[in-house]
Design goal:
By secondary structure, the chain is of the alpha+beta class. The chain has helices at 15-25, 36-50, 72-75, 79-83, 86-96, 238-241, 244-249, 252-257, 279-282; strands spanning 8-10, 27-31, 66-69, 100-104, 107-111, 115-125, 153-159, 171-172, 191-192, 200-204, 209-210, 220-229, 270-272, 275-277.
């Protein structure tokens, strides 16, 4: 069986080129996605926590020789640059924000979904870690293929260290986003997303993939984030994991992407004095105890 390869584009390529490649192959590698300075800052900020984090205890999926650190925006200022990188976020918008319509009484209302930053995680695959089972990330929402006719997620993996076949580079099945839910993925169909540190892999939630096996003596480290359709439940609960004091320090755009907002379909509003209010308004309060006190 001939396996399709992952295409590599440059960080200077257009959003349209990235979108076209992802729609065709399901994923793409972007070389030099972040600068050397950004890469070094990410490494220093993430290593501070990865170095003191124990490996997992799940021998099946998460891995017993793998370290995982979440709550990234509490722990890393530099990660903001990754989340708001135009090539990442604009690609997410073009892929995920497929227009549709709803009927409200006799009114046919056009609408397009918002996106939200659903999860963040630094993942370090250590020596001796075996292959992760192949999976689709949109399975967290029980997404069906191809019935829904739209994608649920765009994910990124920024290589903090070099990703190689030997050290556990993410394994991807290009083209598997076109498969229905009855076809089983196999490791023989995967390719390793080999890339230099500072590059990034972007892929959609319908693509089968999994962490590779690390047969070297050095760990493989990556930073992953995912944009999801905003009408889906957050995978990582930012509301509990990021202190409100930290949220207030973040850019307003990132606050909204983390879920501190109401979507275009009105999910996520907060009732204050009988009114449906945008959570963004609550971030200006000194404490949440003021909610409902006539603001």
């Amino acid at each position: 069986m001939e396996t399709r390869k992952l295409k590599t584009l440059s960080s200077s390529d257009s959003v349209e080129a990235v979108v076209e490649t992802i729609k065709r192959d399901g994923g793409v590698i972007i070389s030099d996605f972040v600068s050397e300075q950004t890469l070094q800052s990410l490494k220093e900020e993430l290593d501070r926590y990865l170095n003191i984090t124990p490996c997992g205890v799940d021998p099946y999926f998460a891995g017993t020789q793998t370290r995982r650190v979440a709550r990234i925006f509490e722990r890393s200022d530099t990660a903001i640059e990754v989340a708001l990188n135009p090539l990442f976020i604009e690609t997410a918008k073009k892929i995920l924000q497929t227009p549709t319509h709803v009927w409200v009484g006799s009114d046919r209302i056009p609408i397009e979904p918002n996106i939200q930053l659903s999860m963040t995680q630094a993942i370090q695959i250590g020596p001796g870690q075996g292959l992760q089972p192949l999976h689709r990330d949109d399975a967290t929402s029980l997404w069906r293929h191809p019935q829904f006719g739209r994608e649920a997620r765009l994910q990124i993996m920024v290589a903090i260290t070099d990703f190689t076949e030997e050290n556990g580079a993410t394994r991807v099945i290009p083209g598997s986003h076109t498969w229905d839910d009855e076809r089983m993925p196999t490791q023989e169909e995967t390719v390793a997303a080999e890339m230099k540190a500072g590059s990034a892999l972007l892929w959609i939630g319908s693509v089968y993939h999994g962490g590779g096996a690390n047969t070297t003596v050095q760990p493989r480290t990556g930073l992953t984030m995912a944009y999801d359709l905003a009408f889906l439940r957050l995978e990582e609960n930012h509301f509990l994991s990021i202190p409100i004091e930290r949220v207030r320090q973040l850019p307003s755009e990132l606050q909204r992407l983390l879920g501190w907002s109401a979507s275009s379909t009105l999910l996520g509003w907060v009732e204050v004095d009988g009114q449906m209010r945008d959570p963004q308004e609550l971030l200006t309060l000194e404490s949440f105890s003021e909610v409902g006190k006539g603001i």
